[in-house]
Design brief:
about 220 residues; alpha/beta; Rossmann fold; 2 domains; 7-stranded mixed beta sheet; 9 helices
């Protein structure tokens, strides 16, 4: 998935990329190594950033990491060619303000690529609503998401990638089930059952079209 999505950005050597919600930096290392771009990864989790920094030691390409809240962070205007964020915006309550910041931080013609959990139009089921509440998520339908980006000034292309999301969950479930004994040995049977139950619930919501996965490619005009 990372390779396919990054290919859409048509990165060029020397470009500057900001990854918001970078986790342990997997996508950042991939972009820097394969496209010779300069990447800054930002994440709120000190554990994730610490692991990313450890992975970056001794590398010959340019990847930096910053532990920060992207909704409170400021960067110099017109700094980045690309802003890249994968399944992280669902934690952001005030997306319109952050999207306006993204627009400012991008150079003219710069691109924003977002993948994120979304929902179908209308009120979610009680089960999905509870999932959203427990996670502390802020989830929108695809059209609402598109409108927020357009209001920030972007020219937006939207793709409903829910089918891909469901297929990926199926593959991950099969992989987890094949490693059940090792997983239980390292963690517990309860942990295993909880993960399987949550992933299957996501899969069911995706199959019935209630939980969606959106891809948004937005260009600074």
């Amino acid at each position: 998935t990372t390779k396919e999505l990054v290919a859409k950005l048509e990165l060029n050597p020397g470009q500057k990329v900001l990854d918001v919600g970078c986790g342990v930096g997997g996508g950042d290392f991939y972009m820097a190594e394969n496209f010779d771009v300069e990447v800054v990864g930002v994440d709120l989790s000190i554990n994730m950033i610490s692991r990313a920094i450890e992975r970056a030691i001794g590398l010959k390409y340019t990847v930096e990491f910053d532990c920060a809240d992207c909704s409170k962070k400021t960067y110099t205007e017109k700094t980045y060619d690309v802003i890249y964020t994968r399944d992280a915006m669902l934690y952001i309550k005030d997306k319109p303000t952050l999207f306006r910041s993204f627009y400012k931080w991008l150079k003219p013609g710069g691109q924003l690529l977002i993948t994120d959990y979304c929902k179908s139009v209308g009120s979610p089921s009680s089960e999905f609503a509870e999932y959203i509440k427990e996670g502390g998520y802020y989830i929108h339908d695809l059209k609402e998401y598109e409108q927020m980006l357009e209001n920030a000034g972007f020219d937006v292309i939207v793709e409903d990638r829910t089918d891909q999301f469901v297929r990926t969950l199926q593959q991950e479930l099969l992989a987890l089930e094949s490693q059940k004994d090792e997983f239980i040995r390292d963690f517990s049977n309860d942990d295993y059952n909880e993960i399987v139950e949550r992933w299957k619930a996501k899969q069911i919501r995706g199959e019935r079209g209630e939980q969606k996965w959106g891809l948004f490619i937005a260009k600074k005009i």
